[in-house]
Input
Amino acid sequence: MFKTTHNMMKLRVKITPKTPLLVASGKTMDVTRPDIEFIRINTADGDTIYIPGSSLKGVLRAGTEALLAEQEKLTPVVCSTSEKLCHELYKSKEKKEKRIKLSYNEHCPVCRLFGSGDMASRLEIADVFPYHLDDSSEEKKSKIQKINGLMSARSGIKIDRKTGKTKGGALFQYEILGGGELFGEFTFTNFELYQPGLLFMLFDLSSEGFLRYGHSKSRGLGVLSFSVEFIKILQTGKSEEKTIKGIGTVKKYQDYGLYGGTNDQITIEGEMDYENQFLYSTFTIDNKDTIDKIIRQFREKAQSLLG
Output
């Protein structure tokens, strides 16, 4: 399915820490710095904190597994990253010996979205920075300076579990981000409509504090709010204006066991820019009301998967 592109969707998302956040880079040897520092990268516009896309993806995958784990009607049954993925659980001995990859329809809905050892992910998550990637250099420098001003150090202690008292010499410091705004891009390729819908449901759970990110979550850190600012959808071949189609509508995939089937489509309600090119069509949505409506429609597709 990845040999041919049928649809793509790019989301630009604003991420706002609702509680302090720490995505740790590990302990530092510099005695003038906190013991545990926020991860940083040196860019052309200055040294800045960031969140690796893999850090977000790990939490989102675990959240999806938990959300779908009790849905026994799903086939195959949802696997667990902490145990084994689909390509390890369901691949026959013969396929393993011949190194035959597990097909798309043999994967559970989580592996179909996030990938496995036999199949690439439908969802790519870029690293998250305190600026938009298309900002000017001056804008990036200004936003880096602003986010650096929101960094601070917090003290922590270790408790002796037997006595319930503080361990001697157990005081340490860790660096936290106390607010501000971060920006990321989420890209789907050859997706079923329920898949973005699941992501939007996970954004809601994250904003409500049911999913937490980064280090020291048990100390109350890591609640993030996700707000979609921009959606761009690309569909190859002939497209109808305002109709978004998932890969379930592609005839050659009808025997792939796709959950949406031929009903894997929605009609956009609200303002958008539609452009019909020779080989593909694009839908660009940056109006908040329209974004909210299309998110609701995608979420309904995910809810139909859950029954």
In short: The helical segments are 53-68, 86-89, 93-98, 109-114, 137-148, 194-207, 288-306.
